[in-house]
Design goal:
The protein is an alpha+beta fold. The chain is built from 14 helices and eleven strands. The structure holds protoporphyrin IX containing FE (HEM).
């Protein structure tokens, strides 16, 4: 038993020279100490897990809990879960059986079959947002984040849920203040409340005017209260927006910085699914990882973990572990798909992953098909990355075509 390990002082977040590689300390830990002790911002000493087999095993272990009231944030976040009471319906921060009940209510909407049926509409949306981005600009420049990735991601999740276009801007602004690490606690809470208010209004309107979108169908089913519905809706909107926005923009940036990979993809569009899978693994935008708490005393690979210990499971480090694939630090769009952890694993694995894959494939194919000469409008070193945000990506991506 080795529980007298040195303690990592904080979750490593600062990136090194390459904007696509996770914090260098994570790689070193994954190689030498895949299960390490780590100090959390509130002083608690818990665990940081960075090895692929270890992260995967713990994500599937029912003794790892996601109960919001017991979680500790691995970053000093304005909206740390331990500062709020977990409302009914926030199933990301619940264990079975509560988690199962809510997850089952929505999972059918994200099945592979249902998602595939959305492809024509997503293709239309991508074309529309590209038209808007390029309108009157000649060869550019444009900011790919604000003018394409974010509107595309917002349209997709808002259409699925049934958020009318007029309310989408307010929703985007609220999500930004919720997730920005530099937001004050008050701003973050205001953001969450604004999203809640938007959702409560929607639920109410769908009660009077039934709709066949996700929220409308849940209202008609009548299994959840209005308050639960508003929270479930808020969870889906927030989980599906920033992640997809940043994958579209960072995925574009990565391809532009790897011209050989971009050329391979352009020469053989049938590589698109593999390219999406590889970009998800290589970029792992949920870089602050999975947050869990040990539910009961246990031994794990020679370590004694006590009930109540906080655990940070690094998806980003695990996805660069040579135990997952050969040459993990290389982007290879021809790579045979590997069981990466970009969507997590176990009962909380991303419920929207099929939609996210489709959205990414359609958005990138439409963009690269429309602008074969797409390039950065500034030197790559000037692109501001989101190392300090919960979801990694770029703040802006100036491009010309
Ligand atoms: C590329 C885009 C996306 C990425 C990289 C991503 C990543 C993830 C990851 C890593 C988790 C697991 C977190 C954990 O175990 O702690 C997760 C959960 C989740 N994701 Fe996604 N996601 C994406 C898009 C979406 C979309 C489009 C939706 C649609 C609504 C969505 C909804 C959710 C929900 C609701 C959960 C919580 C599931 C649960 O607790 O049972 N995500 N996602």
């Amino acid at each position: 038993m080795t529980d007298d390990l040195p303690t990592v002082p904080r979750l490593p977040m600062a990136r090194g020279g390459c904007p696509f590689d996770p914090a260098p300390e994570l790689g070193a830990l994954s190689a030498d100490r895949p299960v390490a002790r780590m100090k959390f911002p509130d002083g608690h000493v818990g665990w940081l897990v960075t090895g692929y087999p270890q992260v995967r095993e713990l994500l599937a272990d029912p003794r790892m809990s996601s109960r919001g009231e017991a979680l500790r944030a691995p970053l000093a976040l304005p909206m740390a879960t331990d500062r709020i009471k977990v409302p009914a319906g926030m199933f990301t921060a619940m264990d079975p059986p509560e988690h199962t009940r809510y997850r089952r209510a929505v999972a059918g909407w994200f099945s592979a079959r249902r998602t595939l049926a959305l492809e024509p509409r997503l293709t239309e949306l991508a074309a529309h947002h590209l038209d808007t981005m390029a309108d009157g600009k000649g060869e550019g420049p444009a900011d790919l984040v604000a003018e394409y990735a974010a509107p595309m991601a917002a349209s997709v999740i808002c259409e699925l849920l049934g958020v009318p276009p007029a309310e989408r801007l307010a929703f985007g602004q609220a999500v930004n203040s919720l997730f920005a690490v530099h937001s004050s606690a008050e701003e973050a809470i205001a953001g969450w409340q604004a999203i809640g208010a938007l959702l409560r209004g929607l639920v109410e309107s769908k009660r009077t005017r039934p709709a066949d979108d996700l929220l409308g169908a849940l209202v008609t089913e009548g299994k959840l209260t209005d308050e639960e519905l508003a929270t479930v809706g808020s969870v889906l909107l927030t989980a599906g927006y920033d992640t997809s926005t940043n994958m579209i923009a960072l995925g574009t940036f990565a391809l532009l910085e790897h011209p050989g990979q971009l050329a391979a993809l352009a020469a053989d569009p049938s590589l698109a699914d593999r390219a999406v899978e590889e970009l998800l693994r290589y970029l792992t935008v949920v870089h602050a990882g999975g947050i869990r708490v040990v539910g009961e005393d246990l031994e794990f690979q020679g370590h004694r973990m006590a009930a109540g210990d906080a655990v940070s499971l690094s998806f980003a480090a695990a996805n660069r572990d040579p135990a997952l694939c050969a040459l993990p630090d290389e982007l290879d769009v021809t790579r045979e798909p590997v069981p990466h952890l970009a969507f997590g694993h176990g009962i909380h694995q991303c419920v929207g992953q099929q939609l996210a894959r489709l959205e990414l494939r359609v958005s990138l194919s439409a963009l690269l098909g429309r602008f074969p000469g797409l390039r950065l409008a500034v030197p790559a070193a000037e692109v501001r990355t989101r190392a300090d945000m919960i979801i990694y990506g770029v703040h802006e991506l100036p491009v010309t075509w």
